[in-house]
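User: Could you write out the 3D structure of this protein bound to 2'-deoxycytidine-5'-monophosphate? I've included everything you need below.
Assistant: Certainly. Input first, then the structure.
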Amino acid sequence: MKYKIAIDGPSGAGKSAIARELADRLGYEYIDTGALYRTIAYIALERGIGDAVESVLEACDQEEIDYRNGGVLLNGKPLGDAIRTEAISQKTSELSKHPEVRDYLLHLQRRLAEGGGIVMEGRDIGTVILPGAEVKFFLTASEEERARRRWLQRKEQGEAVDLETIKEDIHRRDIRDKTREVAPLRQAEDAIVIDSTDLTEEDVLDAMVAQVEKTYVL
Ligand code: DC
């Protein structure tokens, strides 16, 4: 049987890399739901639409949003890193607090998970999107460590960024993601919490694979 595996947690906890690798190890498909939210923000910014959520979603209706091979296709073309800028991160965080936006993506996310064999990563996968997922992880790390990782990542990409600024961004986003009224970031009751502050990626993956294998046997 092919499972549905949910990985939730705050930004910068290493969810994307871990989810992608876990999917690889299990021969599952990786679904990055943050990329779907980012696509909505991308469309809003591209079209210069302000904060009117209805107009943003109307604009989205005129485009074809799909997800294949670990990434978003917008009108059939991979979006790639165009959705990874800081401006898009902030816009996404603002837009994703609206129930209309979450509802807009709910059906697409469930459709992508149909039939199982997926590792879906986000904020409310275990609680709202796939409450019946066979295995749920909540991956976290200290704010300090998450900021440091993001800073390293940016530096490796050749961006000159200031660690303090990143810390502030992460802190701001955390508060917004946790305190929003709709689908705030919280762990599902049956989620297994993994704090990766002092763990390597390999350690986290081994723990996850062991958990999945244990569930298979049960
Ligand atoms: O995981 P990420 O950094 O790409 O997510 C970008 C933003 O989208 C972040 O502010 C939280 C939001 N998001 C969400 O609200 N629900 C999800 N399932 C995934 C992302």
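The two ends are 12 Å apart (CA to CA).
User: Perfect, thank you.
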